[in-house]
Each structure stands twice: as C-alpha cells, then as structure tokens.
Design goal:
Layout: H1 2-14, E1 16-32, E2 35-38, E3 41-42, E4 45-52, E5 60-66, H2 75-84, E6 92-102, E7 108-116, E8 119-122, E9 125-132, E10 135-145, E11 155-156, E12 159-160, E13 164-175
Antiparallel strand pairs: 1-2, 1-3, 1-4, 1-13, 4-5, 5-6, 6-7, 7-8, 7-9, 9-10, 10-13, 11-12
Length: 176
Amino acid sequence: MRYFIATLFTTATLFSANLTFSNGFVEAQTSVLGDNNINPSSSKITSHLTMDNGDVTTLKGKIDISLLDLKSDSHSRDEHMYKAIDTNKYKNTTYTIISVVKNTAGSYNIDGKLNLHGVTKDVDLLGKVTKKGDKVTIKAKTAFNMSDFGIEPPTLLFLSVKDQLNMTIDTTYTIK
C-alpha cells in the first residue's frame, strides 16, 4: 500500500508544473464625477501557480500584489488610495484561483477568492486563459465594491469615489 501511494504521489508530481510571472499587469479602475480615469495598476506581481498536464482548466494557486506598487497617473491620488486601503496595515492583496472552467461562449470562468484589506470574499473573473508553448496568459475582468472589503471609498473635495472597482488582469506566466 505504501508503495502504491508513493508511486501515485511521484507520478502526480511529474505532470504538475509551476508557473512564474513573466509580464503583464493588474489594474483597478474606478471613477469620481468628471474623472473616469482612476486606474492604478501594477506589474510587480508574484505568483504561486501550478497546472497539470498543460491543461489550463487545472490552473490553481495564488497571485500576490504589493498594494504600494499600485500606481496611477497622480501621486496625490495614490496617497489618498494608500490611506483608504490602509497600506500601513494591509500591505498585500492576494487572489487565489480555485477553479478554471471553460464556458459555452469559449471564455473561461475563473472562480477564486480575493483577500483585500484583511477581508476574503469570493470574486470570480471572466476572460481568456491560453497556453502557447511554455507560456500561459490570463486576460480577465471582474467588478466588486470596495465597501464589501471594509474599504470606505475616498472623498476628494466633497466628491466621493465610486464604490465599484473594475479589475482587469492581463498577465503571462512561464511554465517551469
């Protein structure tokens, strides 16, 4: 029995591959009256992803982003954002991929959990997951409210930032 279990474990690890972040970005877009271009993004991403047999539907693991690496086109705006998400206390955000399922439209539902501001919630992405050679690309979007994660949308000069965040992921990983 021990031989069988050891063989099963060894065989399973032969077909599993680690993926490391190569390039791309994660962007969080929101707006305030008169300004729809509040879109901090980061290309400083750490991944802890695995995939079995080159099958993108077996993709699982975590994608981490340092919140201080999110930058927009305004340093002042970024400072307000860092204060709102309390980067002194919550330094990172993590998206954990639970499952990837191809839907009837040919795109993929990526079911996962987002840990942001110390709160973990189900957040599902919709988009494309492709494998070409030793590269896997994820291009997906989702939307959620900041308040669902205990974040009060910032107010700037009596104008409140919209609660809804539209998140875009456009990343490429190398299979190791």
